[in-house]
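Render Cytochrome c oxidase subunit 2 in 3D.
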Amino acid sequence: MCRSFTTFSRLLLLIAGLAVFQSSRAEYGINFPPPAADVAQEIYDIHMLTMQIATFLLLVVFSFVIYSLYFHRKSRGYQADQNFHNTWFGSWSWVIVPALVLGVDLTIASNADTVLKKVWDVPKDEKLMDVKVTGHQWWWEFDYLDHGIKVESRFVPKEESGDLYLREVDNRLVLPTNTKIRFLHTSADVLHAFWVPELAFKKDAIPGYVTETWSELNREGVFRGQCAELCGTWHSRMPIVVESVSPEKFAAWVKDQQAIKVAAAAEASSSKTWSREELISKGKELYETKCGACHQVNGQGLPPAFPALNGSAIVNGPLEAHLNIVINGKPGTAMQAWGTLNDLEIAAIITYERNAWDNKTGDIVQPTDIKQAR
């Protein structure tokens, strides 16, 4: 009875294991994603060649093991050979087997070395489109150097992204197909790493250095990656979404972005006096986008690295000190300079911070105040 129960229990465990395996296989892909660049296809092909060789070797080794376990088992009266190590195979297998494995490795390495040079050696004799990629804690900044466009890309909160939580961003990295693109990688604070599998490469973003990679997308689509370097508390909130479009669609997108930039600059430089409600409304949106990642949407911060702004001595203190720290940052801390924002954006953010949550200073900051403080 006990023996049959044990057998039945094992059967149940096997069925449960298979069910878990099937559900996990339905959730996660078991191979690399389909490449979107020629050099990525070459990497994929090397991966598949490696897997084919490994599978063949696995079958050969397991065949020997299964054969030996079955025909050389004790129940058949087989006696272990105590002098196997003195036979020809027992002596030379320690050389032959590693030599065969090394031969397989060298076969793969030859192709891998060629592809690796293609990945890292940026074409010098052709006109490339330049995109500067800057990692921040915790968002990405993309500068289209040939078009005068800058895009800030941040993760989308769970209530907005749904099933794509930590995989969706507010602004995608839009790139044209059939165009050689050079990526210039750097960081504004700590080590980050730009990684989109379909583009073929993963590259560290190092503070104070600019490194380069390149790619040429051969199909349209949306490709998702993420920061691949542990960069701090919210490392997981640095997804990357690349949207590959035709050159015609990309040209139209560039035109729209340039028009938005011109309109924003004109709005910021106008002599208009903004109302308190307008500044707070605009400031709330900007704060939650640009400041909320560190200081929290509710202003509570993440002390000690990111102090709370709700009840802060800076926010509730002299306006000049508040303006200075937002525009110039604070050396030696994670507070970076936000002087790259236009006058209206900084004025709106500071007005919001000084009138949000429990902060009730009543101060209204106009773009002209920011212009004078720069």
